[in-house]
Every structure is written in structure tokens, then in C-alpha cells.
Design a protein that fits this description.
seven-stranded antiparallel sheet; globular
């Protein structure tokens, strides 16, 4: 029983790359990872600019969320990848986006720019497109798989945030000497339920009156998908994949004259300020149940140890309350059935140590950790 549990945990929090065994040992010394039913977590660890906490809870039959933290000479890279239609795209992004980023940053001696991140996204999209092309004859439904993609990079006292889809990063910022902490959303969400996104789509597709359709109270792009940007979803980007044998619900009734979705991320550049206290990166499963302010309040008013797990549990408790059931009863529901109550949820909290940030401290040994459940 113990052996099986350890294998399970190692699949969730396994690092990758060279010297991976050394890296995971260095992390284990800083915190505790564990499992509670469908909830996996690492309570506290060290990264290049402070402490981190991470957690994920599964709802789908196969976990569609993936996430990672990488910290080394270049700074720190955080990724939250919320898949849809299956796990393939999120897993591909988790395997390839950071290596692309690292290789591109090396070309400029570690200097990170918007272009560094844009190129990494572009290469990842091209790579997944090539995979879909290779598998089209044997696994055509992979053309309907995609992933939202939220990335944060801390480099030289600057935070870069790049986003596709509707995951979100929220900054907890100290308000002067009041003792209060403000919640500041740093990412832009690409979801058709926002008027701004619907207007953006209409401007990009002026001759398509059906570019966004309201179905059962939810706005969807072409009446099919809520997000307007993603990695993958080739059936909405290339006409050669929007045809049989993919499922009829994904096929458009009219010819596709241009890509409907895009993999071009929105990027913000935020110079880090001493009042910037912590960052909450999470898939939309968390934000469906917690407001920005509520999440920041929880982090501000509780110990760092286990804070990501606490956020996930707060969201699950709210999901249970909405269905007029007890949290304890929700915990007894198995994966797949759970999806009727909440989504897969991934949370990573980064606490910012500005002494380390200002000194440009290098993580040694490098940190490489990801949650990549295979079941």
C-alpha cells in the first residue's frame, strides 16, 4: 500500500530534465507533498525568489490540467495548462513550452523579452500542429483537443505574464501601511462570455454574424467553445481538420476562410515592487468558485504552509455549497462524476522575497517540478 502511494506521488510531483533525482531531493527538504483522495499537493517549497505552494484536484476521468515550476539562472518560470477535450495538448505544452523558452533565452544570454515568450508559444503551437498532422489518420479526434496556457516569468526584477484562454494570475499587493492587501488581476482572459472578447472576435470576423452564439445562457465561439485563444484546437484553426471523421458537433456548417482561434498570447510586463507580496496562478476551476479578493484574503490571512491546498479546498467547499451538499459528501464522489460539480483545479502560489529578487539570486540546484498525473 505504501509503495503504491509513493509511486502515485512521484508521478504527480516528478521533475524532469537532467539530474532530476537530485532536484526532487532538494525540493523535498523544503516541504511536504501528499494526497487526500483526488487532491494532490506540495505544502511549501523554495524557488529562486521565495517560497511556493502548489495543489491540484482532479475532477475529470483523466486529469486535463498540467502545471510546472522551473527556477534557475534565467529566473523563474511558472506554467498552468488547462486542457479541454482531453489531456494531450496540456501534456504536450508541459513537455515542450519551457524547453523552447529556455533555448530561446539562451540565445540572448538569459535576457527575457516579450519576443522570447512569443517565440516559445509559437514553436509549441507548431510542434503540436505537427503532432496532430502525424496522428490525423489514426487519431483524428486529437484535432479537437486544446489547452489554455498561463505562464509567468520572473527575470531581473520583472514579471512577465503570458496567457491564452481563461486561467488567471492575481497579485496580492500590500496597500501602503494599512495592513491591507489588494487583489490585482494581471492576466487578460480570452473567454467569449466577456463582452470585450466578443467584440474582438466580431472585429476579426466582420463577415461572420455567427462568430459568437449564445447557447443555454453561455456565449461560445461558433457555438462550440468558450475560449478564443489556445494551444491546439486545430479544428478551429485549419480547415483540413474541420471535416470527417471528427465528431459532428465540432464541424462547421460553412467553409473556414481564416483561423477562428489563435495561439498568440496576450502579454503584460510588470516591474516588481516591494509591496508586491504574492502571486496566485490558477486554472479557471478555482476562479469559478472564488473571487480574486476572496483568494487574496485567504492567502493573506493564513500560514504559507499548505496555502495552495487551502485555496483548492475553499473552492470545493463553495462548489458543494452551491449544490446544497456537504463538503464531506463531495469528497466521496469519484472522478468523472466529480466533473458535474467542479472542474480540475490547479493552484500555484508564489511568495515574493524582494531581497532575493533585488540580488538576482540564482536557484542552486535548479528547481524543476511538475504535476503531471497520468490517470
Amino acid at each position: 500500500m505504501l509503495h503504491a502511494l509513493m509511486n502515485l506521488l512521484s508521478s504527480c510531483f516528478r521533475p524532469f530534465g537532467r539530474h532530476s533525482e537530485d532536484r526532487v531531493d532538494s525540493v523535498n527538504g523544503n516541504g511536504f507533498g501528499g494526497k487526500e483522495g483526488l487532491l494532490w499537493f506540495r505544502d511549501l517549497g523554495k524557488y529562486g525568489s521565495g517560497d511556493f505552494s502548489m495543489a491540484v484536484v482532479q475532477a475529470n476521468q483523466v486529469l486535463e490540467d498540467q502545471s510546472q515550476i522551473e527556477s534557475g539562472p534565467f529566473g523563474t518560470f511558472v506554467g498552468v495548462y488547462d486542457g479541454h477535450g482531453g489531456p494531450d495538448a496540456a501534456r504536450y505544452v508541459c513537455d515542450h513550452l519551457f524547453p523552447h523558452f529556455q533555448a530561446i533565452a539562451a540565445e540572448t544570454q538569459g535576457v527575457v523579452t516579450r519576443e522570447t515568450i512569443e517565440r516559445a508559444f509559437r514553436l509549441t503551437e507548431e510542434g503540436f500542429t505537427a503532432q496532430v498532422s502525424e496522428l490525423w489518420s489514426t487519431r483524428p479526434q486529437i484535432a479537437t483537443v486544446g489547452s489554455c496556457c498561463l505562464v509567468g516569468v520572473i527575470s531581473r526584477q520583472t514579471l512577465f505574464v503570458a496567457n491564452l484562454g481563461d486561467s488567471r494570475v492575481v497579485l496580492g499587493k500590500k496597500v501602503g501601511n494599512t495592513g491591507g492587501t489588494a487583489a490585482i488581476q494581471l492576466s487578460k482572459e480570452h473567454n467569449a462570455n466577456f463582452e470585450e472578447i466578443r467584440q474582438e472576435l466580431k472585429e476579426l470576423h466582420p463577415h461572420d454574424p455567427q462568430i459568437v452564439i449564445l447557447k443555454h445562457g453561455v456565449w461560445r465561439v461558433k457555438g462550440i467553445i468558450q475560449v478564443s485563444r489556445s494551444i491546439g484546437d486545430l479544428y478551429m484553426k485549419n480547415a483540413q481538420y474541420n471535416r470527417e471523421p471528427i465528431n459532428g458537433k465540432f464541424r462547421l456548417p460553412e467553409p473556414m476562410n481564416m483561423p477562428i482561434l489563435t495561439a498568440n498570447p496576450s502579454i503584460i510586463v510588470h516591474p516588481l515592487h516591494p509591496n508586491d507580496s504574492f502571486l496566485i496562478f490558477a486554472s479557471d476551476g478555482l476562479w469559478e468558485h472564488l473571487s480574486n479578493e476572496k483568494a487574496v484574503d485567504i492567502v493573506q490571512n493564513h500560514p504559507r504552509v499548505g496555502i495552495a491546498k487551502r485555496l483548492v479546498k475553499a473552492a470545493l467547499q463553495e462548489a458543494a455549497r452551491k449544490r446544497e451538499m456537504r463538503y464531506a459528501d463531495l469528497q466521496k464522489i469519484d472522478k468523472m462524476v466529480r466533473r458535474h460539480f467542479h472542474d480540475d483545479i490547479t493552484v500555484i502560489v508564489l511568495f515574493l522575497n524582494h531581497d532575493l529578487i533585488s540580488r538576482g539570486t540564482v536557484q542552486d540546484p535548479p528547481l524543476s517540478i511538475r504535476c503531471a498525473l497520468q490517470h
